[in-house]
Structure formats: C-alpha cells, structure tokens
Fold each of these.
Amino acid sequence: MKGWQRPEKPPSRQPVLPGLFSPPKTRRLATPGEQALETARVRLVFVALVFTLAWVVLAGRLAYLTLSGSPSDFQNDRTATGEAPARRADITDRNGNIMATSLPTVSVCADDKSIINPDEAAKELLAILPDLDPTRLNDALHGDKYCAMIKRHLTPHQYYEVNKLGIAGIEFRPDEHRLYPADNLSAHIVGYTDIDDNGIAGIEKSMDARLENDPDPLALSIDLRVQGIVRHELAQAMSDFNAQAAAGLVMDIHTGELLSLVSLPDFDPNHAGDATPDQRFNRATQGVYEMGSTFKIFNTALALDSGFVHMGDMFDTRKPPEIGHHKIRDFEEEGRPMNVAEIFVHSSNIGSALMAERFGPERQRAFFERMGLTEKLSLEIPEVGAPLIPSAHDWNETTMLAAAFGHGIAVNAVQLAGAVATIVNNGIPVHPTLLKKTGDADNGDQGTAAVISPRTSALIRAMMRLVVTRGTAKFADVPGYMVAGKTGTADKIGANHHYEDNARVSSFIGVFPVNAPRYLVFALLDDPKGNAKTHGYATAGWTAAPTIARIVAQIGPLLDLPPLTKADVAAADEKLLQPLGNLTVDGVPVEEGDGYASVKPDGAE
Amino acid sequence: MSKSYPSMLSWFGLVLAASLMLYHTSDRVNALSRQLDSLNAQIADAQETRHVLTADWAYLSNPARLIADIQAAHVDLQPTPPKDVITASPEIMASLLPLRGASPAAGPTTRIASAAPAIMHDVAPAPAAPAAVARVATATRRHDRVFASINSGYVNDHMVMQHSSAAQAGTGNDAIGVLIDQLTIKP
C-alpha cells in the first residue's frame, strides 16, 4: 500500500471545553513498530517490578535480621555442640573412674559381588589378620552377600593395614566395642555384653535401656579404690586359708550405697566367654549361706527390743535346749550362767537359744520380716538369690532355736549387711543399692519408722565393740579405728544334707567407727582351712576377722576417716559402753578396757 | 524512552556494585562454612581421641594393676598403717613444708619447734595446739614414714589429705586454702 496518510480531521461539531471537561483527545492507532516498542516496554516494566519486589523483600529481611535478630537465629545446626556421638553410656564408679565404656571400632566385611579375585584377597587378608579361620574367610569371600562379615572390632592399626591393601569390595562398618578397664574388679557388678552390645549380666543387663537411651555416664555407688583393696585382701585370705570361695562388701550405713562388692573367684569381663560358671557365680548376691553366729545380732536385738530380756538377765548355759535329739552345743563351752553381753561376746549358741525361748517363734519370724530377711532382696543387678527360709507355717520351736544362732535360714551377704546396718543405724531401715545416690537421700528415710528402738541399737553397738575388744574377734581391731562386729562360723551342709564335721563358712560383719557408725564391712570365706599361723583354727576370728582389719586399715584414710589417738579411742569406748551400765564380762567390768583405757603421758605407743 | 545515558550508567553501576558485594559476601560465607565443617570434624576427632585416652588411662589406673603389679615388681611399698597417717591442719602442714624466707635451722625437730609457734599466731583459731605440736614431733621423728594424703577420689592418687577435725569444726572454712594463701602471701 502506498504511504498511509493521516486523514484530515473532520470539523468537530462539539464545543471546546476547558480542562477536564474537554473531550478526550482522539488517539491515532499505533504503528506496528510503535506497537512492538509499547509491548516491550510494558514487559520490561513488569519484569523490573518483579525483580524490584524480590530485592525489596530480601533487603527488608536482611535489614530486619541485622537490626533485630537474636544470635540464636543465626545458629545453624551444623555447629558442633560438643556432645559425644550417640553411643552406649559409660558406667563409672562414684568418683567418675570408668568401669565400662564403648570404644569406636571398625568391622570389616566383604561385598562379594565387587570382589575381583577372592583367593588373592583371602591371602592378603590372612597376612594381616592371622587369627582368621581360612575356611570361613573363603566362605565369606566366595559367597553372595552384600556384607559378609570377615572380622569385627579391628584395632586402628589393623584397620589401616587392611585399608592400605586397597582391595575393591572390602567394606568397613563402624562398630562399638565394650571395654571394661577395671578388669576383674567390675566383673560381677557391671556384668558384660554380648557381641551386639546387649547387656547379658549385671548392671549392663538390668540397666540396658538406660544405657542405650541416655548418653550420660551412669555412676555406681562403687568406689574403685575400696573395691581394689577389698578384692586384694580377700584374694590374699582365700589363698592363705585355701578357701573355696570368698565374698566381701563395704556399705555406707546411712545411704545403703555399696562401696564395694566382691565375689571370688571372679573373671575378666573383657573375655567373659572364657569364664566358667563357677567364676560367674556372684557369691555376694546369688550365693545364700547359713550365716551362723552373725544372726545372734538379730536374736539379741529382738530379745532386748521386745522387752522379754534385759541386760542383766542371766542364762544358764549348763542346761542347753534340744533340737530333735541333739543338744545345742557351743564351740567353747563356758559351763556357767552368762549374761546377755557374755553370750554375745563369746558367741554362745546355748545362750542364744535360751534367749529365743523367751520371745517365741512368731515374734522371731515377724522380726525377720521387718528386717527384710524373708523376701528376695531387690538390688540393681539381676543375679540375686532369694533367701532359703521356712514358711510361716513351718516356723516352729525347732526352727526358732536353730535360727537363734543362724542355722536353718540362708540369706545372701548383701541382705545380711542391709539388716545389720538397719540395727546399727538406730533402727532406721537401710536399703542396699548399687547406684550412686545424689542429693539428700537421707531425707526420704527420716519418715520411715524405726524397726528397733535407738536404745536397743546402742546396746547392740556396745556389745559388738566388746566382741572386738574382748571376744571372738580380737584380730579385727585396728588401732585408731573403732571397729565393732560379730563373727560367724557356720557349719557347712554337705552333699548328703548333713552338717559336715570339718567344713565351715567363716564370716565377720564389722562396723566402723562404731561410736558414729559410717561404714559396714563384711567378709565371708567359704571353707577356709587353718594354717600354721592360725594354729590350725579356721574359725571366723582367725580368718575373716584379720582380713577385715587389714581392709579397714587401708580404706579408713581413703574414706576420710582419720585414725584416732589412743586417748580418743579410750574416751569413745567409755562413752560407747555407757548404756551397758555396770555389766561385767568374764568378771571384768565392761569399762575397764584392754589397753585403750591407759594412755602413756607422752603419747608414745 | 528518553535516552539519558548518565542515569542508565548510574543504574548499571549500582547493579554492578550490588552484585559484586553479593558475590563477595557469598564467597566469604562459603569459605567460613567450609572452615566450620573442618573444625567440626576436628572436634569430633578430638572427642574420640579423648574418649580412647580416657579409657586407656582408666585401664592403666586399675587399682588391681597398681596394687599387684607395680607394688610387687617395682617398689617395695606396703600399705600405710593407720598410725603413720597424720591429719594435716594448717599448722602442721606449714611446719612440714618449707616457707619462703624461713631460716634453715639445725635439725628437723628444732625447725618444727621454731617454725610452729611463728605460724600459729598467724592462723586465728589454733585449738589443741600443744597436741598438734606433739603429734608432729612424733611424726617427724619417723619422718621417712609419714604419709600425707589427698582424697581426690582418683585411683592412682594415693595421697589423702585430711583437715584436722578441730580446724574444720572451728573455722568452718577451707583450712588448706588458708594455708596456701599464707604460703604465697608471706614474704
């Protein structure tokens, strides 16, 4: 088409009006070029607007963050928080020393599809890991699995060497290996795990869920130093007296925390698979023993507390009661009337039986129930032996007479310790525990009713001290520490269900310092035999009591108990024995001691 | 559109500056982020190493190992009998440890006798002072067997230090801390 020309504007018939009232100017139609430009311009403006909006939003957010954001807004979770990776929790003793921990290791497995030359690989692996079984290794490499396990828990050195081989198809998996740095010391308490880190004995088993889920270390009540000392001394005694087994414990009387729990023979939990059942048997918790004369503590406590027996009462041991057709016999017949203190100090079975006749079988069984000796002990490890005790129905006169001097009932060591601690602790119940108590645990027990009166508790404590200063346990005394306790030499029951003539279980339960009791120590020797030093005697006074003395001498300073001077001991003894009044033991008044009452002026020993 | 080169140029300049700043900041953030990752890896490594070393130390500090192997094989040490354990009050510790400026005296006994009174009237309450001096005198006559200990709770620390019961009951504050202050403050 020829040049287009703007047509002539026809004369307008409308009037010309001012300003807004003028008719809109007619617009000519745009040229194609002008149309294109217009479209482009509109699009450009649109895009610019979008970008501007985006930048405005960003700038606004940046300004907002800069001006008002708190530091927590800026932290991303890539910052290392200093927490250990999730792994099975450590088990520590009460002071933080590690008893069980998981070490990161590496396990090597084979991706069979990727291995190019299995035989060559087998040869190279055997060079580095010589203890691999060649046939099993070949099976693993020639198989068809995605990850055929070759060896678990490589050491870092082995890991480096295997990795250096550069064999395609050899894969590494992160793994955990449970390590017990304390070896035999933690064996029975901490237990051990199986290859998949599941606990199968001890604390590892009973607290398995807690160890898996909570990464904080689990603190036990055990003090590893005390544990080491107790085990050392028990092992020494076991070898000295050629005993079959030994058990020992140290318990805090106020809180019930077990500072030490030892059972011998023991094993190394790092090689738990090599342990024999005899080694794995926990003689302190699983083993139930007729504790023998140690039960005279309960007998005497009940006699005095029930009011049927008073301190001055005399019992004629020349007239022993009968059990079945057997007269009760004492180890050393005194053959005279004895008072309560003498019966306790000389450990007279006849005297104890006579005392028991006063209060009768029902009261005795009820007392044992209050002491917690009739039910299975609840402790934090699963290996606990329930007491062997006649039912209430079967509890007759004979049972009572035997129980008066600790036969016919079998309890485990921890249960006995808890009950004796209760008696010594002014009657406030003491519950043994293996976990460290934090905070004021005593407050919970303040409201618990006392099982015996404080006066009875004081009398028992005084008599226990006499046992050590005057009675069967002279070897248990440690200069400077007020050790008190009770020996127990119980005849063992043989395979034919009769008491053996020459086999015994010797034990000593001790409390120190008895003027303000803090700790209870117990040692038990299964079938000790006399040697030259003991003149052939294997009773508790010759075997278990000296062991306790050696233990107390070493753990006393560790447990923040300074040894007292002779003068202090004499003064404490005097105060301790006051409740006994004017009593005489073997003709000598109780307050005239044996060496402690006289202190040389210059303090020399 | 009007052709205004100056304003277009300035807008271009602004865009250039803004993008330069943006990329510079982004690059710095990336560098810091890489550094952060590297540090995190180092931290994790150090934690694992510490864990393994703690386990190793626990194994070496095993009391059974210490008592049996080291005692028997290397040193002829026996357990300390309680009568050789003394309680360490500030007076006793000050008299046993040499103080700066204290004149060396003739023998151990006389040094104790001369030093102890000088210290004692710096420490405010000194109950049972004669008994303390007597105890120290007894101990130093056999000073080769005196064994002061610190109750730290760790198995390879066979040192147990006990505050004297008198000092604990009387002052109620840290007796050993008082002693340490005195040792450092005294000229």
Amino acid sequence: MKAKKITQLSLFCAVAMIMSYIEALIPLPLPFGIKVGLPNIIIVFILYRFGPKEAAIVSLVRVILVSLLFGNAMTLAYSLAGAFLSIALMTALKATKWFTTIGISVAGGIFHNTGQTIVACLLMNTLEISSILPLLTITGTIAGILVGICGHLLIAKFPKI
Amino acid sequence: MFFEIIKKYRNDILLILALILVSASTWLILDTTKTSGSTVVVFKDNTEYAQYDLNKDAEIMIKDGDEYNKLIIKDGSVKVVEASCPKQMCVNSSAISYNNETITCLHNKVVVKVISDIDPEVDFIS
C-alpha cells in the first residue's frame, strides 16, 4: 500500500470514528443500542472508491479504536461481528452490479444490526432474537436508505484524489 | 417522476423487499414455534436463585444489599415492576410468558427466565 493511500484511508477512518462519536451523542428511543450507522456512509464510500479490502481494513480499525475509546470488550466482540457480516454482504452485492448504493447500504445496515444482536445473544445467552428481529429490520431499512443516499451523494460529489 | 424513481431503483426495491420478507418469515417461524412456559426461574450472579410457579399470582422481591428487583407474577406472565438499577431496562421490558423468554437486569446481574416443565433443557439460542 502506498503512503498516499494509507494517509487517505486513515483520514477516512478518522471521519468514520467521528461519525461513531456523533452517533453516540444522538439519543434514540430504541433498545439494545440500535444506531443509525453513520460510519457506514464512509464504509460504503470507501467500498466504491477504493475496494472491499480497503473498506474492511478501515472498518476493522474503526471498530477497534471506537470500542477502545468509548466501549468495552463486549462491544468490541459484537461490533466486529456486525461490521464483518455487513462488509461481506455489501461486497458480494456490489460485485453483482445489480444494485445502487441504497440497496447495498440497506442490506449492510440490516446485517450489521443482526450480526451484532446474534453475537450479543450468544455472549449473554439471554435475549430472544425473535422479539427484536422486526425492530432490527425496520430500523435497518430506514437507516440504510438514509445512509445509501448520503453515500451516493458523497461518491458523486467528492473530488477524486 | 415517481415511476422513474421506481424504475431506476427497481433492483434496490426488490432487494429491500426480499430482505424484509426473509426477516418477516424468520420472525414468523420463531414466533409460532414458541410455547408458553409454566415456571419462572430467577438467576442471580449466574447461579439459580429461586423458582416460582407462573400460574400462581405473586409478588417477589429479589434483594442483595441495597440492590433489588421487584417481580410481579400475574395471569401467567411475569414482569419486573421496580428495580434499583440506574438504566431501568428490566423495568421497561414487557411482561414475559413464553418458554425461554427472559428479562435481564445487567446492573444487578439478575436474569428472570420463563421455562416450560416439559422440556426445560432446550435452549433455542445456543
């Protein structure tokens, strides 16, 4: 990886981290820490501009740093699961070339939430996935559409560097 | 205008509908296979604390020093009505009555679980 690319990716990683922080500041009246997934805007952008490998690296670094700064070992475990499930799915869907950023980010959003919840269920062995699945799908879809629109605008307007 | 948008994002809309369908059917399968429970088991600090009959109305106090959780069993369902924890997530959880449903209070390390006597060992999650 060239120094220029490393610099660019770390810059985007910093932006994604700030997004996580802003997101943590916005209180949502939803249980289980369901979030909008603002950092996903950056991940979608990187997925399109750089590629899946770069998106996975930035996502990994972001999740680790954010968990170390604002969370704990538990959040790290389920954030990682969610992040990777969502990146894998978004990469696969992007490769088909059938979908725009909106469809891809909706799928990514839903699977990010679902991955997190499955791991949280496995770790704590207490939550019932069936009772929260509808909520996860609805919030994931709405948030995914918003993130997809933002990602689309960012990809279209951001100058090539 | 409206039809143009639909045409442009046809695949995305189909994908979203497919995802919702998959999730809805998973939820339906999970929801219809659940059976009603008959016993309330309370775990405190990861060990079993007490068992109660779900079909007998009762008020239960789980105390540990200053920490407490107050449960009410009524009409075959159990609910946490009062707790000393700061987040009150257990109090805000809705009443549970089906097999394997749980209410968790992370702060006081209290887990309230409904089980059915017929098959108490089966755990759907793990």
Amino acid sequence: MTRRIAVVTAGLSQPSTTRLLADQLADAAVAALDAAGEDVSVDVVELRDVAHALTDHLLTGFATGGLAEAIGDVARADALIVVTPVFSASYSGLFKTFFDVLEPETLAGKPVLLAATAGTARHSLVIEHALRPLFAYLRAVTVPTGVFAATEDFGGDSQLAARVHRAAGELAVLVAGAPTVAPRRATALPAADEEFGDVVPFEALLRGEGL
Amino acid sequence: MQIGIFSVGDVTADPTTGRTPSEHERIKATVAIARKAEEVGLDVFATGEHHNPPFISSNPTATLAYIGAQTERLILSTATTLITTTDPVLIAEDYAKIQHLTDGRVDLMMGRGNTGPVYPWFGKDIRKGIELAIENYALLRRLWREDVVDWQGKHRTPLQGYTSTPRPLDGVAPFVWHGSIRSPEIAEQAAYYGDGFFHNHIFWPASHTRQMVALYRRRFEHYGHGTADEAIVGLGGQFFMRRSSQDAVREFRPYFDNAPVYGHGPSLEDFTSQTPLTVGSPQQVLERTLSFRDYAGHYQRQLFLVDHAGLPLKTVLEQLDLLGEILPEMRKGFAEGRPAHVPDAPTHASLVAAAGGARDTTVHATDDVTGARAEDAVEVGA
C-alpha cells in the first residue's frame, strides 16, 4: 500500500531555500518510510505556480486547473510537509491563502510536518507561535519537531540535518502506524458523485438530525 | 422546455459611464425587462429577493403582482424566496393571492439567501439556516394543502385551527423549486418532495453543477417520484451577445471586469471557459446553452441572468431581443433527442389536470355556526 505525502512549499524565488528545505524533508521522510517497509509517493505543490488561481478562488469561490489538482493532492495525502518563508514575523500570505481555501475538515487528523525558512535565526519560534496554532485550528496532527532554517543554517555547521531527520522520523511513525487515510472531500467542489453518497436522508433532516 | 430570465435586482454603477441608476429607475427597469421578456416570447420571469442596498428586490410579491397585471402569458417566479427568514404563513398567503390574481401564472423557488445579516433583520438565527429551510417549508406545504392546520415547530409560534387564505387557486399549490448551489440537504429536500431543483450554475464550474443535479436526480428516484431522468431540473445561465463575438467581448469586458461577485478576479476568457458564461455571437450562445444538457441531462427550465453589473436598460432590452431571435432554434435544439417520457416543467394547468380538475376550495367562516368569537376564546382561557 503506497503512502502519499504532499509537500506544500510557499517559496517565491526559483530556486528558493524554502523549496530546498522542503526537498530535504521529503527525502528524509521517504527514507524513513522506506526503512519502515512502506511504499511512498510524493506530490509537490509549489504555491507560486497557483498564486493567481488562489486569488481567483478568493473572489469566485472555486478552484481551477492546477489549484484544483493541488487541493486534490493535499486532500488525498496520508501526510503533509508544509514549508513557508517567514514574512513579517509569520507565514506568508500566499501560504495562508492556500490553507484558507481548503474545505473544512480537509486536514482533520492528517499528520503534518511544519517547517519554515527565514533570513535570520531571530524568527526561529515562528513555527510555534504562528504555524502550530493554524494547524491546530485545522485539526491536523502536527509532529513535535518543527524545522526552522535560517540562511546561516545552510552550509554552516548547524544541526539542521539532524532536525530534518528527527522531524521526518516522527512523521514516518505517524504515517506508517496509521490505517490508510480515507479520501476526504478533495476540492472546494466535490470531485466525484460519490462525494454525496452519505447524504442525510430527508426524514432525518425533518427530525432535526444530521444538522 | 421553459426558457426565461432571472434578476438579482442589483443597483450597480455602469462602469463605462460611472452613472448609477436610482432605485426608482431600477425598479421600473425591472418591470420593463419583464414585459420585454414576454414580448420576445420567453416563458418565465423570476425575481430575486434581497433586503439591503444595493438591491431593489425586496417585496418580490408586489413586483410580481404588478408585472402579472401587465403581462398575459409570462410565468412569474422567484430566484429565490427566502424560506429561512420569511414567515411561511406570509408566503402561503402571498403566493396563493398572486395565483388568483394571475390565473395561476406563478411558481416559486425556495432559497436560503446568501446574505448573513438578513437573518437578524427578520428575527432569525443564521446558524439555523438549514433547519429553518426545512421546518418552514414543511409548514408552507401544509398551509397550502390542508384547509385547517394545527402545527407546532421549533422556529415560530404554534398554529391552532389556522386556515391560510386565500386557498390555492383551483385547489393546487404553486409549483415549488428549490435553489441551492452547494447544500446537498436542499437537493435532498427537493427530491424528497418531488419538487423541482434549480442550480444557479452561473458562477460555478460545470463539474459542480453536474454533481448537484446528479444527486437530486438520484434521490428523486429513490423517493419514488419517477426515474432520475424524470426529475424536474432548472439551470441558470449567463450571456452577453452581439452579432459578432468580437463586439460582444469588447462591449462586455468592462462590465465583467467590474462586476459584483467575480469582478477584479479571473479574466473574462478564464471565466467563460470555467463557467457557463458565454460572451459572443448568438450562435455561440445557442450552442453553449444546448451543451448544458451534456452534464445536466434533459431538463425543464433555463433561466438567464441578463440585467446585472451595471448594464444599462437599453442594452439589456437589446440582449432580450437577440435572445428572442435565437429562441425558436433554442427550443428546437432542446427538443432534439429528448425522450418522450421526460416531462415538461409543471404549470398550473398541468397540476390542475394531474389533480383531476379544478376545485373551488374556498373555506367559509364557521363563526356563524358556532357563534364563537376570538375574544370569547381569550376570556375562557383567562
């Protein structure tokens, strides 16, 4: 059974250090799951590529093209790795917008590895004060180790690689130990007729049940 | 196949001139548009219902009655009637009255409305939106179908021995559609009662409309009202046409770019490919409209939004003239390949026929029999 990991990365430059960190985390998670005997597939969602579609979604209420695919990838994933650059002491607006347009419940119960990049280590608590509350609200299961990387962590004699492996290992434990995640509502617009398979019968609605 | 128009009733500045019509102009324009709809051969005019600026569509019943007096053939409808915040006792009276005044040329579409603040304006709680839609409609049905109603629910005071007047014309209630964009509960409600289901359609990708309609059809069959392809489906639509598609695009673009709802968002080109909006020649509008069947199946009612986004009245009337020109082809197209067992949208005449003929259901007061007065009952109670 293949485990699906979706990597959501909000870096803006190409290449970006955000994507670099995302790739390191994805590689480490794949390796950890490999070691646990799991097949893994990885979908990478570059939010830059769907930035216009995200703005359109805010204005029209529906996802199109690449954004619809990205939302589907995230909804179907068994686990997420999310990485944002730090803008003004928090996640970037683009990063937040993507999670704003997900249907409620999309991330409920889903393991998520939180990561962020910044120009200075003084932002290193951003994961705890900004990302973790957001994903708590979305009722995701965040792994204990968040991975923050400042510019100086790349190349310097930092413990970044160790943190990457620890966090990826924590994610792998959650994924390998879990039953396969049931498909959730994949997009803002239901993706298949079966989405409505569990409609509440009208007699129950009349009795005030299921509301 | 019924083909018509539906109006939101927005008062929006014309982005090409900066001029905003007055409420009075817009209200009168709505009447002119409805009259034009009849003149060019359309079947239905439906008005929205909003209770705040920038809309002029409050009190839809006065509007419909007024239009009813100035037309002869047009079916008057709503898009939508706020079943959540309007007392069903009032809806029962109002639309039965319009039935009588227009000799049955009225039906209505229930909706929940999309303006959150409207709930407290009418003493309701938005968190109870779906509940209100379900309970109120269940009561409304009884008020039209039972001469004397005893009723108790959660969201309004109980009714005891209540008779809604006038009784529905010829003993048949107006046909009801249920409009919903995203709530499967409402499609379920329409299916349960065997009522019509209308999907707004115009701001959404076809894949979404397809699924909501498919759900309604499946559940319609489940509840034993007929096969799925006999369910009563209506769709919205939106176009802007000129003889040449280049002219249509050039003229409509500023209205699109500044429109409420989607303005300042996706490009005209993206939006026309993602949603049913068609901006082009009459032939393009015709072909696009007929393609709605590809995902909705053979359906019963097609309503177009034509008066919005600040388009001046003159332009709207021209749009209706153009629609009138392609109307025969559109009807022919909709009839093509339509199986004989797919029904037309119910009308007053068809509902009367199905009920076995017209009945006078006037309820005469019983006070002269019992001698009881309301005041007496209060004194006994005290």
